[in-house]
Write a structure and sequence with these properties.
Blueprint: E1 7-8, H1 13-22, E2 54-56, H2 69-76, E3 81-82, E4 131-133, H3 137-144, H4 149-155, H5 160-166, E5 174-176, H6 184-193, E6 199-203, H7 209-215, E7 223-227, E8 230-231, H8 233-238, E9 247-251, E10 254-255, E11 262-266, E12 272-276, E13 282-286, E14 292-294, E15 302-306, E16 312-314, H9 323-331, E17 338-340, H10 349-358, E18 364-366, E19 385-387, H11 399-402, E20 410-412, E21 421-425, E22 431-435, E23 442-446, E24 452-456, E25 463-468, E26 473-475, E27 484-489, E28 494-496, H12 507-510, E29 522-524, E30 533-537, E31 543-545, E32 554-559, E33 564-566, E34 575-581, E35 585-587, E36 596-600, E37 606-608, E38 617-621, E39 627-629, H13 638-647, E40 653-655, H14 664-668, E41 678-680, H15 690-695, E42 701-703, E43 729-731, H16 739-748, E44 754-756, E45 766-767, E46 807-809, E47 818-821, E48 832-834, E49 843-846, E50 853-855, E51 864-867, E52 874-876, H17 884-892, E53 899-901, H18 910-919, E54 925-927
Parallel strand pairs: 5-6, 6-7, 7-9, 8-10, 9-12, 11-13, 12-14, 13-15, 14-16, 16-17, 17-18, 18-19, 19-20, 20-22, 21-23, 22-24, 23-25, 25-27, 26-28, 28-29, 29-31, 30-32, 31-33, 32-34, 34-36, 35-37, 36-38, 37-39, 39-40, 40-41, 41-42, 42-43, 43-44, 44-46, 45-47, 46-48, 47-49, 48-50, 49-51, 50-52, ...
Antiparallel strand pairs: 1-3, 2-4
Helix pairs in contact: 3-5, 6-7, 9-10, 17-18
């Protein structure tokens, strides 16, 4: 890089890039424009330079970039010399980028022709895809005004016009040399060039004599920042040469050794001054217009101020500053409004009293970590914000002084360990913080403007009394000793009392009507284990959480707007009344000891009582109820069911699993449920279906799992769809129906789409080889005409029925040995067949056109598998005993098979897996143990 700051482009571009990588922080100094061409000796050989055009190749062409070596050599041979621009980020001497070559243009074309306007020899090779952009100086200036310094330095390398625009002084009003590799000589040159700069950020290590002389030229400087380094008296004398300087920041600086170790700052226009973390013994500031002064974390022991207009003073963490030093500095500024003396451990109450008397307009005070302050007899009537973190002298008597701060809006008393009680009546108080006040017992606040209270880790706080018209949220979590709360908060919206273990039942009166919180919306009482009887009467309450309240035995809610309630962990709840509530759904299955229940909920659509095994009385009045799950409510009787159906006529889904006390009379009451589509009577003592048939004509789903007392003739009314015509799903799993009853069901109920026969011990071979001859008379469809006319285990159906069966489940049927479903069975809709865990199945022969999923997992005795299922996509044979040859033959007929599971099949080897992939190339997933 030349000393005059120009970029010399007489080297190769590769060398410049290497130099950039080696010195990424080198600063390029801008210089005055240079129009000479280096590398020429005779004037006749000089080629005049004109403003370059910008060539934009068409996006449809595949451009040959300038990275080719031939283009680099041709471009570097021109030996152009450009003016430099300030590159404070990368700081490298770089060549301007060469023009982008088009595919039809060779690198040799760069040598043809010259740059004279009349010579277009070199331009003729440029194809018609190139577009020339001629931007005016004003337009470029406007665009560059949005760029930062780093981008400006990069754009200055494009052409001479852009370079001239990038070094314009309008863009270099702020000179920031922090965190840059730059020399003092370069700083001096930049300062002399941009004399109209208004802001300068400079490391203190560069403040030598040449730089100080150059700084004198910055007569328009307004902001000066000096970071680190060693400062001399000459620097502070230099400040007088900046007549409009209004902001000075000195950070982590030290004074020269051998000097007085005293900082003298005198300036008539300075308004903001920071001397932070500086090593000096004394400081003297005389600035008639100074408004803000910060001496934070400085090692000074004395501060002499002559600043009549000073508004803000920060001497925090000045550990060497004595009590008289703080007093003298503060009282010399009668207009002081903000004072930060935190971590000044020598400050006493006497100093605060004198400061309060001298600075009558003081509004902000931070006296945190000042152990000698108790605020005794301190009067600061205009104080707005007071911060007293970890002040060991603050106690209950300090509240008398705080009561005189009528304008106080924010108060922080965190970690004041000797504070035992807080009683304040301040009309403007908005925020108060009492974090980790270990000895506080009582809190009494009366402030109509109070909006925020932060009380955390106060282990012996027992009483809280708050009066406010603006408070909307109150959080008192983990106050384990809190027993009494009194609230008069007209706009209180949310209350969180999580883990307040000592709260008693009287807390419910506070949140009920007339308790002082008329607009309460959310109440959280999680893990309040001392609560036993919760009674709430509130028209505004929308959400209530009693999670983990294990001691609650009686719950009575009269909250017509209640929309959400959480009762997880209330496992000792004995009686519950929701009358009335606005709930849409309710789950009481987590309350196993519930015996009495009353619900009046006009908007409720879902009620779950699953697991309330001792519930004997239930009064449910929910006219919009659609789903009722009373599983395992073994004590619910016919009267309860009848009353529920009368009050809830809209029920569509009814689950009465294991409701053993409900008999035929209760089932007859279901006739009131005209919309009932799902009925679950599993694990009951049901013997026949006549009550269900008479009461539920619209039934679509009927579940009769483990109904071991169900008679074989109970299913006859379902044949041919004569009753329950809309029934499409039937679950007879784990029942004791005979083989003949099941066979008749399969033969005479072609309208069923879902049938579950899991675990039916009386079910034997499943053989659907039907004949197209009449097998049953119309009068007695359940009896065979002549058993000798039929082959064993065959059922003959009248005509050729169109079966709607889609899903058939026979999981765990231990007595099934053979499954045969031929094409004559007309199972055209069957898409899923599950025979898993049927350990004795030996033969499976299926001809189902639309079967997509077949599950034979854990059929260990399987030997024969014949499939005529062209649309089968998933075959599960996990832990089956099928032979490899049989499996290969089966796969060949399944052209659309995508998933095959043969894990834990002892007779299937890794070689067979490879063959299966060859046989079925469309197989996407094979799960095996190899």
């Amino acid at each position: 890089m030349a000393l005059d700051g120009s970029w010399a482009l007489d080297g190769s571009l590769e060398e410049e890039e290497q130099r950039q990588e080696a010195h990424p922080d080198e600063v390029l100094l801008p210089s005055s424009p240079s129009h000479a061409i280096s590398g020429t000796e005779n004037a006749a050989d000089e080629v005049p330079l004109k403003r370059p055009k910008l060539f934009v190749p068409s996006l449809e062409m595949n451009c040959v970039t300038s990275s080719s070596s031939s283009a680099m050599e041709q471009y570097s041979s021109t030996n152009l010399e450009y003016d430099s621009s300030p590159n404070l980020e990368h700081g490298l001497t770089q060549n301007p980028p060469p023009r982008v070559l088009q595919p039809s243009e060779s690198t040799e074309s760069l040598n043809t022709g010259d740059d004279n306007e009349g010579d277009h020899g070199g331009r003729d090779n440029i194809n018609h895809h190139e577009v020339k952009l001629d931007l005016t100086d004003d337009l470029i200036h406007m665009v560059f005004s949005f760029l930062d310094h780093k981008t400006l330095c990069t754009t200055g390398l494009v052409c001479r016009q852009w370079h001239a625009a990038s070094v314009h002084e309008d863009f270099w009003r702020c000179l920031n040399f922090e965190n840059c590799r730059i020399t003092a000589e370069q700083v001096a040159k930049l300062c002399r060039r941009y004399t109209r700069a208004v802001e300068l950020h400079l490391p203190g290590s560069l403040l030598d004599i040449p730089v100080r002389e150059a700084l004198r030229t910055l007569r328009s400087l307004e902001v000066l920042t000096i970071d680190r380094g060693t400062l001399s008296d000459a620097f502070f004398s230099l400040l007088a040469d900046f007549p409009v300087l209004n902001r000075l920041i000195i950070t982590e600086a030290a004074l020269e050794r051998g000097g007085t170790q005293e900082i003298h700052i005198h300036h008539e226009s300075l308004r903001y001054l920071e001397v932070v973390r500086c090593r000096a013994l004394r400081i003297s500031v005389s600035c008639s217009l100074l408004e803000t002064l910060s001496l934070k974390r400085s090692g000074i022991s004395s501060a002499i101020l002559s600043c009549p207009l000073l508004r803000e003073l920060d001497v925090s963490s000045c550990h060497k500053l004595s009590d008289p030093g703080v007093r003298g500095a503060a009282i010399s500024c009668p207009l002081l409004q903000s004072l930060d003396i935190s971590n000044c451990s020598y400050v006493s109450d006497d100093t605060l009293r004198e400061i309060a008397a001298a600075c009558t307009d003081l509004r902000f005070l931070d006296a945190s970590y000042c152990p000698n302050i108790s605020l005794e007899a301190v009067r600061m009537p205009r104080l707005v914000d007071l911060r007293m973190h970890n002040c060991e002298g603050i106690n209950a008597t300090s509240m008398a002084s705080l009561s005189q701060c009528f304008y106080l809006e924010a108060l922080q008393l965190d970690f004041c360990w000797l504070l035992t009680s807080v009683t304040l009546d301040l009309p403007r108080l908005r925020h108060i913080s009492l974090v980790n006040c270990r000895k506080i017992v009582e809190l009494n606040l009366s402030s109509p403007a109070l909006v925020s209270i932060n009380i955390t880790s106060c282990p012996i706080l027992s009483r809280v009394d708050i009066t406010s018209t603006a408070l909307e949220k109150l959080v008192l979590q983990k106050q384990k000793s809190l027993t009494t709360i009194t609230l008069q908060c007209l706009h209180l919206y949310e209350v969180d009392l999580t883990e307040c273990e000592s709260l008693t039942n009287s807390i419910c009166e506070v949140f009920s009507e007339g308790g002082g919180c008329p607009m309460l919306n959310t109440l959280i009482l999680d893990s309040c284990e001392s609560l036993s009887n919760v009674y709430l009467n509130s028209v505004s309450l929308h959400m209530l959480s009693l999670t983990g309240c294990r001691g609650v035995t009686n719950l009575q809610l009269a909250c017509p707007s209640l929309q959400k309630i959480c009762l997880d962990g209330c496992d000792h709840l004995d009686r519950a009344s929701f009358s009335p509530v606005g709930l849409c759904s309710l789950n009481l299955g987590i309350c196993p000891h519930l015996t009495e229940l009353e619900i009046i909920a006009p908007q409720m659509t879902s009620l779950e009582l699953k697991g309330c095994g001792v519930l004997s009385q239930a009064n449910i009045d929910c006219p919009q109820l659609h789903s009722l799950d009373a599983s395992f409510c073994s004590l619910l009787n016919d009267d309860c069911l009848a009353a529920a159906t009368a009050a809830c006529p809209s029920i569509e889904l009814l689950v009465l699993m294991s409701c053993t006390s409900i008999g035929p009379e209760g089932l007859l009451a279901l006739q009131r449920l005209s919309n009932l589509t799902l009925l679950d009577l599993s694990y009951t003592f049901l013997t026949n279906l006549q009550p269900v048939i008479d009461s539920c004509p619209q039934l679509k789903v009927l579940k009769l799992q483990a109904c071991k007392y169900l008679e074989n003739s109970a299913l006859i009314p379902l044949h041919r769809g004569r009753t329950l015509p809309k029934l499409c799903e039937l679950d007879l799993s784990y029942g004791t129906l005979s083989q003949s009853a099941i066979e008749e069901l399969l033969a005479w109920c072609p309208h069923l789409t879902h049938l579950s026969l899991n675990g039916c011990v009386n079910m034997h071979d499943l053989d659907w080889r039907f004949q197209a001859s009449n097998s049953y008379s119309d009068s007695e469809p359940h009896r065979k005409q002549n058993k000798s006319d039929l082959r064993d285990d065959q059922i003959h159906v009248e005509g050729s029925p169109n079966r709607s069966l889609q899903h058939l489940n026979c999981v765990g049927c231990a007595n099934i040995k053979k499954v045969v479903i031929p094409a004559s069975a007309y199972c055209m809709s069957l898409s899923s067949l599950n025979l898993s865990l049927s350990a004795n199945i030996q033969e499976v022969n299926l001809a189902c056109l639309n079967l997509a999923t077949l599950n034979l997992s854990n059929c260990v005795a399987l030997e024969i598998l014949k499939l005529d299922c062209p649309r089968l996509t998933s075959l599960l044979l996990q832990a089956c005993g099928i032979e490899e040859q049989e499996l290969e033959c089966t796969i060949q007929s399944c052209n659309l098979l995508e998933t095959l599971d043969v894990r834990f099949c002892p007779k299937v080897s890794s070689t067979s897996i490879a063959k299966l992939r060859l046989i079925s190339p469309d197989l996407k997933r094979i799960f095996s143990s190899f």
